[in-house]
Amino acid sequence: MWKFYYIGIMKNTLFCLLTLCCFSHVPAQPPARYDVLIHEIMANPSSASGLPDFKYIELFNASRNAYNLNGWQISNGKSTAFIKTDFVLQPDSFVVIVPNNSATAFSIFGAVLAVTNFPALSVNGEMLLLRSGDDRLIHAVAYNKSWYANEVKSDGGWSLEMIDTKNPCSGGSNWKASTDARGGTPGIRNSIAGNNTDETAPQLLRAYVADSIHIVLMFDETVDSLQASAKKNYVCEGMDIDMAEPQPPLFNTVRLKLKLPLLKEKIYNLHVKNVMDCSGNMIGNTAVVKAGRDEMPEAGNIVINEILFNPADNGSDYVELYNRSNHIINAKTLYITGRNTSGNLSTLKQLSADDILIFPGDFIVVTDNSSELKRQYLVKNPNAIIEITTMPSYPNVSGTVVVLNTLGEVIDELGYDEKWHFDLVTNYKGVALERIDYNAPAQDKNNWHSAAASAGYGTPTYQNSQFKTNEQLQGGINISPRVFSPDNDGHDDFLTIAYQFPEPGYVCNITVFDARGRTIRYVVRNGICGTKGNFRWDGLDEKKQQISMGIYVILTEVYNLKGKTKRFKQAVTLAKRR
């Protein structure tokens, strides 16, 4: 009996020694940032794949130390899962975090930890935070659907995998969809693992004003906290900087505190230098962004400047807005929508949940597929694109675009029609309508024209190919240009017949004659004029057919109910087409 008792004591002692030996390899020092990484994310599983139909998150120990994960937590900011069991994650090892009801299904894939309150992983994107037992932030990932770099795989059944564990803070450039035939690689080396060295310096994207004494700088990747904290690296014209603080959890933003408040309606240039990313790449030449205090937009501050409502195959609608005011407008205060057949507003779409400043003279483009927009059109300023989840419904034939502010006030509205396109454009698919004059009424069909062929039929993020302004008109009738070539190449494609009268109530007739006096086109018949405006001739005859090049006469007859009449006869030249 004593013999068996002695053996039992020895077994228990041996178990305790083994346990002590195992945990003796766990260091007393706390883990550092990026020691343990969020390494793989299955946000949208599928029963058709070779993996269990459950979401999972894989962790990888990228350090030389082993860590007991008891007390660690993983969160999406809404729900937090706590690891409540002892588990030592050895260096160069994996563990798969799964919901409680899927532990058995994943047990064949190696080390698995089941948790309650598993984060709800959205397909479109989520912020995931990994914290140690003492609440240190170890790793943060803000993934989105574009990280898959594959339209088919982003629809479901495939995980997102990290490429290079030595490059943990480069965001989407270090992640792609799994290439494993099962759809993912839980518990083993990632299918896309390899070298993906970051050799690009961080880019300063934009800035916004949080309040009168705080400016927030946005970078395209995580920046080194030490360098980013040095206030000498920032210069704001005429303003002294009191403090610079990199902001968790991604550390891709820096909050500057000023000693004095910013002035209203003043644009400040902010210069940044010597800031580096966590791979040691430093901003070379000084980067500059604008900042200033924004104001609530009012009617006419922001105007609809261009619209693509009949996109090419695989493309998406887009709406370009232009800030024609002297005010700084925040995109988060703007909404875009349409009207249904009853004339009621459809579901509002906020331009941005983030602070994006639209400065005077800036263009901003709203779409739900920025990658395809950049593939199909020349985009001169990619940072001026705002991607929303879904665009409002803009029918191919006709529809309405409405822009509102957060108070529900209409800022600009356009009821468009495909008939506004240039008559020689036979296929409207992929051809944007451009506003000719920012200051002319949106609802005037003569203020819209098809984007030029030479511009790729669209000019998102920069000045329209058909842009013209009539601000220099002094009075009477003015025709420009005197030589035009209606071939939709973006250069003098149409004739503008602009008018300006001292009072309202005028009516006009505009007729085009050829050199032999034959009537070619009735541009306007009994057209009601405002005090200022314009009409347009596209160089076609009454049957919308092309005419030969040569000299033509524009006869404009103006009269009002008071008996005042006047006639203007002006010659123009229709030049050779392409």
Provide structural commentary.
With 578 residues, the chain is mainly beta. The chain has a six-stranded mixed sheet with strand order 8-7-2-1-11-12, with no helix packed on it.
Defining traits:
6-stranded mixed β-sheet; single chain; elongated; 4 helices; 39 strands; disordered N terminus; mainly beta; 578 residues
Mean pLDDT: 89
Count of DSSP helices? 4
The rounded distance between the terminal residues' Cα atoms is 109 Å
Class per helix and strand makeup: mainly beta
Question: Which descriptor suits the 3D outline?
Answer: elongated
- Please state the CA-atom Rg, rounded to the nearest Å: 32 Å
Strand proportion = 35-45%
Helix content: under 10%
Biggest sheet strand order reads: 8-7-2-1-11-12
Low confidence ranges: 1-25
Biggest sheet, open or closed, and with what strands and sense? 6 strands, mixed
The number of strands is: 39
Oligomer: single chain
Characterize this entry briefly.
The chain is mostly beta strands.
Which helices and strands occur, and which strands form pairs?
Layout: H1 2-23, E1 36-42, E2 56-61, E3 67-68, E4 73-75, E5 80-82, E6 88-89, E7 94-99, H2 103-106, E8 112-115, E9 125-131, E10 137-144, E11 160-162, E12 175-177, E13 204-211, E14 214-219, H3 225-228, E15 234-236, E16 241-247, E17 253-258, E18 268-272, E19 287-291, E20 302-308, E21 318-323, E22 329-330, E23 334-337, E24 349-350, E25 357-358, E26 363-367, H4 370-376, E27 385-387, E28 398-405, E29 410-417, E30 433-435, E31 448-450, E32 476-480, E33 483-484, E34 495-500, E35 506-514, E36 519-528, E37 532-537, E38 550-560, E39 565-574
Parallel strand pairs: 7-8, 26-27, 33-39
Antiparallel strand pairs: 1-2, 1-11, 2-7, 3-6, 4-5, 4-9, 9-10, 11-12, 13-14, 14-17, 15-18, 16-17, 18-19, 20-21, 20-30, 21-26, 22-25, 23-24, 23-28, 28-29, 30-31, 32-34, 34-37, 35-36, 35-38, 38-39
